[in-house]
Structure formats: structure tokens, C-alpha cells
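Inverse folding, one chain.
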């Protein structure tokens, strides 16, 4: 399958940025790497929680000294970044969707500080690196499970914002569902919010009332609706099956450890430079995985999914990257 031009463009940007780096950021760190996290949402939120978990693990191993600020307003984000840079942090991690200009301005003012930011755009020499949760591969696999399970041939999908980072996961899910069930149709809605469980729940109720018997739970609140209406759901980024037993059939999990461990090691040895860390979210690097509740999936479907998973890991199957906004079928 062909990779969409947006990802190719990011790879080119990363390569171009790395060529322009004449020297690494700062010098080798003699002791622990001091890392600050700057987050616009609570650390319990799905996406942020994966970053927070990986950094806490590195802290527990004694590799980093980790501190963080959560619920930082967009208007305060630049100030908080600067405060951490002034405190001598070796690396600052966060998400800058919608805050690109401000964050890149700060990075330019502190060239000796490493910045590793979730972003839709490319890295900038010498010290601004980017990452994202490229878990389109396990998302495809969860789509296969959902497509095979749907009896009504209608699947509901509730997302946060229609940005590339969300769109590509939903598109991959839809592709996976269509592989096993060409008759399946989708109902798609975006909340224009990263955290509004009541709104997500109401959106899911509307889709279930319209015939959806499987829900793609990109946001909190969707699985609650699935439980109340007795339909199944597929999770995203984190595993919530323990909170919704008998409801979550499978989840595409993001593991940030591969990304942060690589960045920390480069800061530690003084080789950190502007790069795109997106590849470290791929399954082959351990950045993404599939979890399933085998009690909710037939052995035949599970065998087909595992076969496709092995092909992805062996490089024999490539999941298409499609950043376009998904829409409901008419």
C-alpha cells in the first residue's frame, strides 16, 4: 500500500533538519537527565498518560529526574516552557498542537535545551524534535476485529478533533474493518474537544440509536454509552478493558517508552539533535501493540488478525497512512 504524501513530507523535513545540524545540542549529561513535561490536559487523559507513564518509568529506573506541569492553559504554555528552560532542564517534553509558533520560538531562544514535542509538523535544527502516536498499525487490526463482529454492519466512531493524528488512526481502523467486511458502514462525529465525556457519551448514544452495534472509543465517554446500551467497543491509546469488562473487544495501544528512551539516551551522551521520532511509535519498535479480549472474539477471526499482525511485524504488510478527515457513509 502507498504511504500518503503527508508522512513522506515529514520524513523529508526530518532529513533536511538533520543535515543542517553542525553540532549536537549541549554536552553529555554526567548525572540524571533533567526532564520537564508541559501538558495542556490532566496526566490522566489518554494521550498524555502514555507520555507520563514512560517518563515515570525512566525516573523510577534512575535515568531521569522528571517533573511536570499539567492543565497548562494555552496562554501560559510559552511562559511555563521558558521557566523550565531557565531552571536548567536538559529536555522539555509536551504537546504543541495549536501552539507551534510559541513553542518553536522558545526552543530557538534556548538552543542548549532539548525539546521533544508532539507536533503535526517537522523538526527544526538544532534542538526541536517532534513525535506522534503513529499507532495506525494496531488500529487497523482492531478494525478487523470490529468489522467481523458487527451484525448490523454499522460502526460508530467518536473522535476529539479532526487532525491528522486522530484521522489516520480512524482511517486505518476503517480500512481494517472493510478488509473483513466490505458491507460495513460508518457513522463519524468529532467533538471538537479533547476531554468531554458527557458529550462523547451523547454522541455515542445517537449512533447506537441509529443502528451501530460496535463503537470506536477514541474519547472517554464512548465506552460508557456502549455498556449502557449493551454493544461492544474498541479502545484507543490505552487499555480500558479492566474498567469495561465484557465490552472492550480490543484496543490499539501506544507505548511512548521507545520514543522517550531513545531521546533520553541521546541527551545523556550529548548527541541529541532535531529529528522526527515518529517511527518509534511503530509496532516494529515496540511503540504500538494490540491487546484483545479473546473471550469476545472468535478463534477464526483472532487467527486472521494475528496473521496480519505478523505480516506487519515482518514488513510484509503496510498499513496505509491517510490523514484525511473521515466522514460518515451516506
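Residues assigned per position:
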Amino acid at each position: 500500500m502507498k504511504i500518503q504524501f503527508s508522512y513522506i513530507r515529514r520524513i523529508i523535513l526530518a532529513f533536511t533538519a538533520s543535515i543542517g545540524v553542525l553540532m549536537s545540542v549541549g554536552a553529555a549529561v554526567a548525572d540524571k537527565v533533567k526532564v520537564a513535561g508541559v501538558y495542556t490536559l490532566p496526566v490522566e487523559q489518554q494521550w498524555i498518560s502514555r507520555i507520563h507513564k514512560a517518563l515515570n518509568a525512566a525516573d523510577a529506573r534512575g535515568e531521569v529526574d522528571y517533573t511536570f506541569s499539567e492543565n497548562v492553559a494555552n496562554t501560559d504554555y510559552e511562559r511555563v516552557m521558558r521557566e523550565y528552560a531557565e531552571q536548567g532542564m536538559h529536555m522539555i517534553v509536551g504537546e504543541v498542537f495549536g501552539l507551534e509558533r510559541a513553542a518553536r520560538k522558545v526552543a530557538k531562544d534556548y538552543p542548549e535545551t532539548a525539546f521533544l514535542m508532539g507536533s503535526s509538523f517537522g523538526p527544526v535544527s538544532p534542538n526541536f524534535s517532534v513525535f506522534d502516536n503513529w499507532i495506525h498499525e494496531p488500529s487497523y487490526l482492531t478494525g478487523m476485529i470490529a468489522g467481523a463482529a458487527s451484525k448490523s454492519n454499522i460502526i460508530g466512531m467518536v473522535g476529539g478533533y479532526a487532525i491528522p493524528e486522530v484521522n489516520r488512526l480512524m482511517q486505518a481502523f476503517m480500512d481494517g474493518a472493510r478488509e473483513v467486511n466490505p458491507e460495513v458502514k460508518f457513522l463519524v462525529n468529532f467533538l471538537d474537544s479533547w476531554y468531554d465525556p458527557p458529550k462523547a457519551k451523547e454522541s455515542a448514544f445517537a449512533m447506537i440509536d441509529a443502528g451501530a452495534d460496535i463503537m470506536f472509543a477514541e474519547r472517554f465517554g464512548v465506552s460508557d454509552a456502549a455498556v449502557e446500551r449493551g454493544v461492544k467497543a474498541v479502545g484507543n491509546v490505552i487499555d480500558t478493558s479492566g474498567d469495561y469488562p465484557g465490552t472492550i473487544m480490543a484496543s490499539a495501544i501506544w507505548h511512548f517508552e521507545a520514543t522517550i528512551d531513545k531521546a533520553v539516551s541521546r541527551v545523556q551522551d550529548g548527541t541529541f539533535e532535531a529529528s522526527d521520532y515518529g517511527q518509534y511509535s511503530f509496532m516494529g519498535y515496540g511503540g504500538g501493540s494490540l491487546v484483545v479480549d479473546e473471550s469476545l472474539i472468535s478463534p477464526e477471526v483472532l487467527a486472521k488478525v494475528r496473521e496480519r499482525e505478523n505480516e506487519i511485524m515482518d514488513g510484509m504488510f503496510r498499513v496505509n497512512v491517510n490523514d484525511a478527515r473521515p466522514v460518515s457513509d451516506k
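The chain has two domains: 5-133+255-281, 136-253+286-313. The domain at 136-253+286-313 is CATH 3.40.50.2300 (Rossmann fold).
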